[in-house]
Write a structure and sequence with these properties.
four-stranded parallel sheet; alpha/beta
Length: 222
């Protein structure tokens, strides 16, 4: 049984008993026994453990976890302190500096502060084999994270969804509540950042939306 120790426990009651998740759990048990899998099994659900359902102000949807040693810790785009920020995260920091003037470069890549400030850092797939990107796709995580997005969509209190890249945009059809704001752009990867991520100004736009709805803005510093 997964315990989030916040309102996700009640909201997701019964989800872990569904057939797809029972199959996913058995797959993961075998994977963790026989392979190196990231993140640690204790960190898989950190996004929701750190950001309660009712506290979500912004959702940033990633793909699957980083697959290098010591990188992934359950938050999309984030790495633990002491681990060099990957190129996509450096590009996110570059856009933040250009957009809202906050300089996160030269510090670290741990986005825990964002999570504690209401940013749900959710990957579409929550686990991965070491050095094998996309290796846990199609095993059930997509159904689980779509349920998370669907539940967030039902909430009346406004929030912002930042969908970067085609994988994240696949969740867009589940966000139908007019109370929420959906912003899309290219992925911050070096391969695509210049195709629309740089200059998207999503960080200031998110805060403007929150402010207009009487909600506290997000501090994008780390």
């Amino acid at each position: 049984m997964v315990n989030f120790n916040n309102d996700w426990d009640k909201i997701l009651d019964g989800e872990f008993d569904k057939d797809y998740y029972v199959r996913l759990k058995q797959f993961l048990i075998n994977e963790y026994k026989t392979c190196r899998v990231y993140p640690s099994m204790y960190d898989i659900f950190n996004a929701m453990k750190l950001t309660a359902y009712n506290d979500v102000k912004c959702v940033i949807i990633g793909q699957d976890p980083y697959h290098g040693e010591g990188q992934a810790h359950g938050l999309s785009f984030s790495v633990r302190q002491g681990i060099a920020p990957p190129p996509s995260l450096l590009n996110i920091f570059k856009e933040i500096k250009n957009d809202v003037g906050i300089d996160n470069s030269g510090k670290h890549g741990d986005l825990t502060k964002w999570a504690e400030n209401g940013v749900l850092l959710l990957n579409s797939v929550l686990t991965v084999r070491a050095n094998q990107p996309r290796s846990h796709r199609g095993m059930g995580w997509e159904q689980f994270t779509t349920e998370i997005i669907t539940l967030l969509n039902k909430r009346e209190k406004p929030m912002v969804f930042l969908l970067w890249g085609n994988d994240a945009k696949q969740k867009m059809s589940y966000i139908t509540n007019p109370n929420h704001l959906v912003l899309t752009s290219a992925h911050p990867s070096p391969l695509s950042a210049y195709n629309g991520f740089f200059g998207c100004r999503h960080f200031s736009k998110a805060n403007e939306f929150l402010r207009k709805n009487g909600l506290e803005e997000i501090d994008w510093s780390i």
